[in-house]
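User: Before I run my own analysis I want an independent prediction to cross-check against. Here's the chain; please return only the structure tokens and, at the end, one sentence I can use as a sanity check.
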Amino acid sequence: MTSLRNLPAIDDVLRLDSLMDVLQRHPRSMVVDWIRLAVSECRARILSGAELSRTDAESFVLQSVRNAAQAESGQRLQQVINATGILLHTNLGRAPLAAAVMERLQHCSGYTNVELDLLTGQRSGRGVRACRLLSQLTGAEDALIVNNCAAATLLTLQTLAAGREVIVSRGQLVEIGGGYRLPEVFAASGAVLKEVGTTNRTYLNDYEAAIGERTAAIIRVHRSNFSLQGFVTEPDLSSLVELGRRHQLPVIDDVGSGCMSDLSDPGLSEPIVSESVAAGADLTLFSGD
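Assistant: Structure tokens:
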């Protein structure tokens, strides 16, 4: 056990010239924690029978600290090149901000009228103008901006259908980025999932046969991350809207990422939000991408 004496003191490690670059890039308190952890790991090795010289112990601690610093740097937000082939990549921040948006953000980075009506001098609602502009852009009667599309789905189901049934095609029970699964969103909202049809074929009469006293709404979910091809059938939105109106049920259309205009020419085939609104969906849900 005499090699325990070879463990370097934390202050001695902090004074090493070879650690100065790490201390320049990271808070001293964080580096101290890394050193303590490395010394503890080194002590455990010695106690398990390893014989380490003073030089060996010091090298082990230095390398451990450098590994921790490298791991920390890898978690910091920084620019990367998206070479995945996925245009809207959840793990890479999804849609990049346009140069005009960045310029506007820089312009509004100081004091701004976030909740102030400059005409009256009175307090106004946060995001009111953004919602109004979104309504104009999509043709919707009104708009609401929340954290993401999963949050929009949760809030919608919770508000319209807690304790009641929402009809959905089995072929639309998707898992989206971040591990959010539609059945789990249903469970969290308190709404009851009413599956109809099969994975590849769901007909309008499947939806109609499932309508009962406990039915609160019908939902259509876009399969953003995959597609079904071949022997596939499902009713279009207009047919679901007509069915919903006959039975006085709201129809919710979750269009995933959604597009504000047709981007099929450059190869981005996503539902267009204004078309969902025009088709009569009572609520259209989509991401901000």
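Sanity check: The CA atoms of residues 36 and 178 lie 34 Å apart.
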